[in-house]
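Example with several molecule types.
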Amino acid sequence: DGGITQSPKYLFRKEGQNVTLSCEQNLNHDAMYWYRQDPGQGLRLIYYSQIVNDFQKGDIAEGYSVSREKKESFPLTVTSAQKNPTAFYLCASSILTGYGTDTQYFGPGTRLTVL
Amino acid sequence: AQKITQTQPGMFVQEKEAVTLDCTYDTSDPSYGLFWYKQPSSGEMIFLIYQGSYDQQNATEGRYSLNFQKARKSANLVISASQLGDSAMYFCAMSHQDDMRFGAGTRLTVKP
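Resulting structure tokens for the full complex:
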């Protein structure tokens, strides 16, 4: 089955620790995205990547880092510099047609809680 | 800058009836895409329907249709014959040059 997987589903972190959220897709999509969702709010873009070894900051990149060493994988690291990391994190992917309006497909999400 | 507005924080509908979820957007670009996603309590965002800004016909996907009024910059989602499983958060989104923006969402509750 083609799709996007995220792990873990739930993650608990102590203050001052870095944690890495996994995102893998087998849809052969070129682009991948990370979003953050806070309770009662829409999604905000953290980082996105359209090609291996290249990525761009979104609206709220501070305190986060990413890598794109393989087309299928786009891990997100939440660093200790992120002031309020408790949130729901969603990974998405899409093809790139060049029209700029491609549908994004989402993984099941990771719920991060800082203790 | 692109902006998406969903003015209904919550909506109720009786099972088997139709419901319209409102979405307005603001952009000066002629080329853009409009999307609706469903987010059940499990959290996953499920793609429902897409409308391109140059599409002449309103998009339909099964029980979902998008009422696209370009001059009014609105892209309302219509769900026909509501089912209990339709209870969820619904998000409107707009994409331009690979930049997708989401509204704050509408929580739909279907009553039996």
